[in-house]
Amino acid sequence: MEKFTILTSVAAPLPIVNVDTDMIIPKDYLKTIKRTGLGTGLFAEMRYHDDGSHNKEFVLNQPQYSEARILVAGDNFGCGSSREHAPWALLDHGIRCVISTSFADIFYNNCFKNGILPVVVTAEELDQLMDDARRGANATITVDLETQTIEGPDGGTITFEIDSARKHRLLNGIDDIGETMGRNHHIDDYETRLAEARPWV
User: Fold this and answer.
1) Are 142 and 130 in contact (CB under 8 A)?
2) Which of 21, 12, 115 is nearest to 70 (CA)?
3) How many C-beta neighbours within 10 Å does residue 150 have?
4) What does pTM read for this prediction?
5) Based on the structure, what is the number of domains in the chain?
6) What is the mean pLDDT of residues 67-93?
7) Residue 89 domain flag
8) What number is the average pLDDT over the span 133-137?
9) Per-residue confidence at 196, pLDDT binned at 50, 70, 90?
10) pLDDT at 36 (0 to 100)
């Protein structure tokens, strides 16, 4: 998993509340268990017209946001079904950080497992960041995980909270399995002791 340390990018504004996982990646794209290739389906029902052409009004189709790696979204982002394809699609498109006032629990947890940083801010802070994001290519936002800060284009700084264990895994680019594998020596020691104490097992 790619490490998350400091991310500076244009932020795409998505001021929609209750964006559910079906909006993030519609069910038609759930036929694969691969983590790659889902970026084309990200927000498909909003990004494309019925004939498959791009909806130029949708934020990620606008030139100033085509390379955005930060998404500033409305409240309760990632609600609905528990599909892990949602963070896969965001990551495949290039989104590494989503900022909102709240997230659905399962989506929030899945983000960390896939190298995406979900940041919770207050309503006032979200309004400020949404205004910054609407400035497009004229403004970039910097998210620093180590210092747990978001710096706006005018120098204003917002701090955010994050669980220390999740922060450690993101900073080091490891998922739950990677963290377990990093403790192999403890596992080996336990199995050796178990074999000596209970050789019949």
Assistant:
1) no
2) 12
3) 26
4) 0.88
5) 1
6) 95
7) yes
8) 93
9) confident
10) 82
pLDDT at 180: 61
Q: CATH number, domain at 113?
A: 3.20.19.10
Residue 150 in this model has a pLDDT that exceeds 90: yes
Establish if 136 belongs to a structural domain.
Answer: yes
Distance CA 106, CA 77 (A): 11
Residue range of the domain that includes 140: 6-174
Measured torsion, CA atoms of residues 171, 141, 98, 39, in degrees rounded to the nearest 10: -90
Examine residue 196 and state whether it is found in any structural domain, yes or no. Answer: no
80: left (phi over 0), alpha (psi -120 to 50) or beta: left
User: In angstroms, rounded to a whole number, what is the distance separating the alpha carbons of residues 113 and 170?
Assistant: 9
